[in-house]
Q: What sequence folds into this?
């Protein structure tokens, strides 16, 4: 009698990566179950939740935070034991954290993927840019990425790079006046301004409207112009996939021959369910994916699961320009200054990306003025003046993988389902610390170049919510978790769709790379099951 | 709400609500014309915002503040954050009324504006109405002592109305953001299109 399964493929996690993989597999005629720990919630409810929230700068605040499906800011969800308070803003609901990601959709540079062999630090990827390029294109088409084809995204003002086989699916949005004004002031000093490719459509696309500049990409785009993973969760369902919400995976069951034979999940009402499949994709983000592997005791013959945790830990700076630059008009970010994205300095210190935030600055401006004791009509006058000249630079650093930086299941705290929560140990290394003064020097040059007035440079380092390295990709099963196809070395039918596979971080937001890898993986699985 | 307020009968509570409605009508007439001494009697123990708080809010912000539920939220939350707040409001309201200030500028020019305790009250009321929330937001947490007052009604949007977005809303169609507001001093070397970006690096060190 032939063996029967509940599905050809089970995908755990309905974020952008899991949902794109599920859609590709369903489209290829495979039976697919897409599991989600959280709920499905319509956009308008999130928008209303945001407008009625007192936590304006807390991007998790408008979203469901349930005892069995926490946001990452829930007290007790992450226990930190290192020197850095690692708290990325992660969500559990259909669509995942791309509900509030601002939609930066960069490609890595070929050299980013050969960091060790080029600069002698970190690790190389086991695959090269050329292998990934067609899937970058498919990922961009899936997400509706807008971009400028003729730019050198390495920031070196050379020929267009990285190489593209096709133009961007959609043309870039118009350049904000703020970006124009800063470019006019700082490009004569040699700073290279780069448009950020972004999954925020500029014309109607895949049922989404063109961006109307609502300036709220984080925590929620009110009109759905910005891509979020629920788009492909819906597409997957339309293509025949079954979406299970309120389904928290807590165990992967091993069978004979090194295969995974089942996933066990629990609902908020306490029901336990076992589902079988020919192949499994774990797409539960870069923290929850390694946690599930560790509590299931799978895929960890290398002892690398949960290790090598990287964020693009960053710093920030605000200053007043001498003339109004008018932030708060258009999308919340549009690119930045990329001179230090690439170069020989990467032998000695981290690559650096300076992003220019375009958020309406009324909250920090007003809060600052009130604390300064400005009241009455003068407060209104100063809000207008200060907000119009406000410049907010958000800087990130390239990270290197270290085994000591890791996520583990908590041994002391469990969620309402009895599933362990998270323990994280994370320290900032000297490679990043050596880059900080270089970035700070840039900050002072920016202020001087704009005849500006420095407001503040952040202390220490900040979270940037780009989780990488925790199920690291490599060619050697002894020191990595997955191979270049995102297949676990230990279990040939277990694949991981998460930015946690990324072994060399560069400085760019990794989601598009994760989607490209997920689509590539889905193609492979479709041929095998 | 304190125990004494909670123990009041329904009839008494109904009367207090009626008084409040009358009070709001009165202060609406008085807005922008200072504070009359006879209205400075606080009703802090009812749970409803006293006239003194309503009038002080209007005096400090120069706004009508006609959103009754927002007024109630601000009062309740500020009183919960600081048990001394109702007394501080009564004190400041009385002081402002006694001094006969007609506008916030009069207050700011007076010795009263040098009093730290008074400024604390002014600051709390200003923050509630300008920021649209009370309390101090926590970082990387889902729990803090903040409370919602108003979103679009937050007065921090007032000076930039039509110039900057109230997030989630828009100022126009796609690409409205390319042009600055009228009257902006535009640099001569501005480049509006993306092909003008990343000019050849010239002098920046390490670039």
A:
């Amino acid at each position: 009698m032939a063996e029967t399964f509940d599905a050809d493929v089970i995908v755990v996690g309905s974020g952008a990566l899991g949902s794109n993989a599920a859609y590709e597999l369903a489209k290829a005629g495979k039976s697919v179950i897409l599991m989600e720990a959280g709920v499905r919630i319509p956009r308008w409810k999130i928008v209303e939740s945001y407008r009625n929230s007192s936590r304006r700068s807390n991007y998790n605040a408008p979203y469901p935070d349930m005892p069995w499906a926490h946001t990452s800011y829930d007290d007790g969800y992450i226990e930190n034991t290192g020197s850095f308070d690692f708290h990325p803003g992660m969500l559990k609901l259909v669509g995942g954290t791309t509900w509030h990601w601002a939609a930066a959709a960069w490609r890595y540079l070929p050299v980013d993927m050969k960091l060790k062999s080029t600069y002698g630090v970190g690790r190389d990827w086991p695959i090269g840019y050329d292998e990934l390029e067609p899937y970058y294109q498919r990922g961009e088409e899936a997400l509706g990425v807008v971009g400028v084809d003729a730019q050198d995204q390495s920031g070196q003002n050379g020929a267009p790079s990285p190489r593209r086989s096709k133009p961007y699916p959609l043309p870039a949005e118009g350049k904000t006046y703020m970006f124009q004004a800063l470019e006019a002031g700082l490009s004569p000093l040699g700073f290279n301004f780069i448009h950020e490719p972004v999954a925020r459509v500029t014309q109607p696309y895949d049922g989404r409207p063109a961006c109307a500049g609502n300036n709220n990409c984080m925590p929620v785009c009110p009109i759905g112009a910005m891509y979020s993973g629920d788009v492909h969760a819906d597409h997957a369902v339309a293509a025949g996939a079954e979406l299970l919400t309120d389904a928290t995976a807590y165990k992967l069951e091993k069978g004979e021959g090194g295969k995974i034979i089942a996933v066990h999940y629990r609902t908020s009402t306490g029901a336990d369910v076992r589902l079988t499949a020919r192949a499994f994709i774990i797409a539960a983000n870069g923290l929850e994916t390694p946690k599930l592997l560790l509590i299931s005791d799978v895929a960890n013959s290398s002892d690398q699961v949960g290790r090598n945790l990287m964020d693009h830990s960053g710093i920030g700076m605000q200053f007043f320009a001498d003339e109004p630059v008018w932030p708060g008009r258009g999308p919340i970010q549009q690119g930045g200054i990329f001179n230090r994205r690439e170069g020989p300095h990467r032998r000695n210190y981290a690559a650096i990306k300076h992003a220019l935030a375009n958020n309406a600055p009324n909250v920090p401006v007003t809060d600052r003025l009130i604390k300064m004791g400005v009241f009455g009509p003068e407060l209104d006058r100063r809000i207008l003046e200060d907000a119009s000249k406000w410049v907010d630079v958000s800087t990130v650093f390239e990270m290197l993988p270290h085994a000591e930086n890791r996520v583990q299941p908590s041994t002391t705290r469990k969620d309402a389902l009895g599933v362990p929560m998270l323990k994280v140990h994370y320290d900032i290394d000297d490679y990043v610390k050596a880059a900080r003064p270089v970035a700070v020097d840039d900050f002072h040059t920016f202020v001087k170049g704009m005849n500006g007035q420095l407001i503040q440079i952040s202390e220490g380092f900040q979270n940037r919510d780009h989780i990488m390295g925790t199920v690291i990709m490599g060619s050697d099963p002894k020191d990595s978790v997955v191979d270049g196809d995102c297949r676990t070395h230990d279990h040939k039918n277990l694949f991981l769709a998460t930015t946690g596979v990324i072994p060399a971080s560069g400085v760019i937001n990794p989601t598009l790379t994760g989607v490209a890898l997920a689509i590539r993986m889905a193609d492979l699985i479709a041929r095998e099951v | 709400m304190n125990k004494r307020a909670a123990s009041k009968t329904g009839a008494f509570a109904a009367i207090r609500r009626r008084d409040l409605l009358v009070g709001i009508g009165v202060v609406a007439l008085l807005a922008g014309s200072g504070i009359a001494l006879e209205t400075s009697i606080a009703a802090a123990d009812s749970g409803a915002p006293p006239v003194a708080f309503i009038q002080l809010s209007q005096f400090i912000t120069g706004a009508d503040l006609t959103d009754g539920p927002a007024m109630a939220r601000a009062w309740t939350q500020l009183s919960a954050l600081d048990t001394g707040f109702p007394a501080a409001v009564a004190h400041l309201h009385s002081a402002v009324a006694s001094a006969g200030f007609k506008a916030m500028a009069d207050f700011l020019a007076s010795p009263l504006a040098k009093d730290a305790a008074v400024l604390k009250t002014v600051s709390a009321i200003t923050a509630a109405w300008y920021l649209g929330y009370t309390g101090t937001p926590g970082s990387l947490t889902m729990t803090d002592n903040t409370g919602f007052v108003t979103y679009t009604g937050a007065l921090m949007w007032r000076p930039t109305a039509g110039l900057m977005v109230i997030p989630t809303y828009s100022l126009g169609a796609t690409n409205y953001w390319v042009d600055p507001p009228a009257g902006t001093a535009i640099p001569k070397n501005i480049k509006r299109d993306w092909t003008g970006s990343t000019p050849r690096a010239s002098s920046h060190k390490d670039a």
